[in-house]
């Protein structure tokens, strides 16, 4: 593969194209400054304005959320697993229909694997613009987002209606539901009763891992298996996640039988493949084609780490076992 062909599979942090109208809470005060990024796959955006950087199926989706301080993402649910790691800033993740069932604070490099059938939200509680990177299970990301009823009602009061076709209609722009399209129905009391509400101990103990702990485990010479059947988060959400550090990076060429993704967390990484090489910086995302021999090594001194993602044959959900 030529360098030009591979460059088309690299999304640079500085080239990310945001969408500020991606979801139903785009006008809701406190959530109206969010920026949503769809990097690999179609994602779950409800807006036609969403730009997709790489549409090649990988068995999972890669996205990101960028938010200024005190901006939050409203309570929602997914049918497939959702994994976040903090690229920049300090973030509070919370869950439950109204976000009051539990919470955890994540720092840069920390990771959280949020299972299916749980209402979740997140907020930038740092002092600067923050960015979290997301991995969603499945090529179609489970068919979209399920919103808590109060989120739909709040959005309607600020001019946005979600149709049952999964599209947003903005009355502030003079757009109304077309004939034959009804509003997306809110969950009934019986449906809400079927949504899981785990304790803080269950979520934090089972699905959150700290960057410094993972870095220490990767210092033994092999990457830290973060999420997978043998991971420190024992889960099979349809993909595996490893943390590779300077100490655990291998200079041996290797390949995968399906596309894989490299996402630097710290430092610059030199990726060499049969046909060329490129350098990745934190926030960049690289899709490596299947069966392409390659390797990734730090290109500068100092701390270096990256997250590596590859699909598995496991179903994309559900993952919550209670």
Walk me through what this model shows.
The chain is mainly β and 322 residues long. The protein folds into two domains: 15-208, Jelly Rolls (Sandwich); 211-311, Jelly Rolls (Sandwich), CATH 2.60.120.10. It contains five helices and 24 strands. The strands form five sheets. Strands 1-22-19-24-18-16-17 form a seven-stranded mixed sheet. A seven-stranded mixed sheet has the order 3-2-4-11-6-9-15. A five-stranded antiparallel sheet has the order 8-7-10-5-12. The mean pLDDT is 93.
Distance between the termini: 45 Å
| Sheet having the most strands | 7 strands, mixed
N-to-C SSE string, H for helix and E for strand: HEEEEEEEEEEEEHEEHHEHEEEEEEEEE
Might you state the CATH topology name of the largest domain?
Answer: Jelly Rolls
Rg estimate, integer Å? 19 Å
Judging from the principal axes of the Cα atoms, what is the shape? globular
CATH C-level class of the largest domain: Mainly Beta
The number of helices is 5
Query: For the residues shown, what is the average pLDDT?
Result: 93
For the record, the CATH architecture of the largest domain stands as: Sandwich
Kindly name the structural category. Answer: mainly beta
List segments where confidence is low: pLDDT < 50 over at least 5 consecutive residues: none
Question: How much helix is in the residues?
Answer: 10-25%
For the secondary structure, the number of strands is 24
């Amino acid at each position: 593969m030529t360098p030009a062909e591979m460059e088309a599979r690299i999304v640079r942090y500085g080239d990310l194209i945001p969408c500020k109208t991606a979801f139903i809470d785009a006008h809701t005060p406190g959530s109206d400054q969010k920026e949503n990024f769809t990097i690999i796959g179609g994602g779950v955006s409800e807006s036609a304005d969403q730009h997709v950087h790489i549409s090649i199926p990988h068995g999972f989706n890669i996205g990101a959320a960028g938010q200024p301080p005190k901006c939050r993402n409203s309570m929602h649910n997914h049918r497939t697993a959702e994994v976040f790691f903090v690229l920049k800033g300090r973030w509070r993740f919370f869950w439950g229909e109204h976000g009051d069932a539990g919470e955890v604070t994540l720092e840069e490099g920390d990771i959280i694997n949020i299972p299916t059938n749980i209402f979740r939200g997140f907020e930038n509680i740092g002092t600067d613009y923050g960015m979290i990177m997301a991995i969603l299970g499945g090529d179609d990301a489970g068919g979209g987002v399920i919103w808590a009823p109060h989120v739909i009602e709040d959005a309607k009061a600020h001019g946005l209606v979600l149709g049952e076709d999964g599209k947003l209609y903005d009355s502030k722009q003079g757009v109304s539901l077309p004939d034959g399209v009804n509003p997306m129905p809110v969950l009934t009391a019986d449906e809400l009763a079927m949504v899981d509400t785990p304790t803080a101990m269950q979520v934090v103990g089972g699905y959150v891992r700290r960057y410094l702990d993972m870095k220490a485990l990767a210092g033994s010479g092999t990457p830290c298996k973060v999420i997978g059947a043998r991971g420190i988060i024992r889960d099979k959400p349809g993909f595996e996640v490893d943390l590779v550090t300077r100490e655990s990076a291998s200079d041996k060429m290797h390949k995968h039988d399906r596309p894989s993704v490299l996402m630097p967390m710290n430092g610059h990484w030199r990726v060499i493949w049969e046909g060329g090489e490129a350098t990745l910086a934190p926030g960049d995302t690289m899709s490596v084609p299947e069966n392409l021999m390659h390797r990734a090594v730090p290109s500068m001194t100092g701390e270096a780490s990256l997250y590596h993602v590859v699909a598995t044959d496991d179903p994309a959900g559900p993952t919550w076992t209670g």
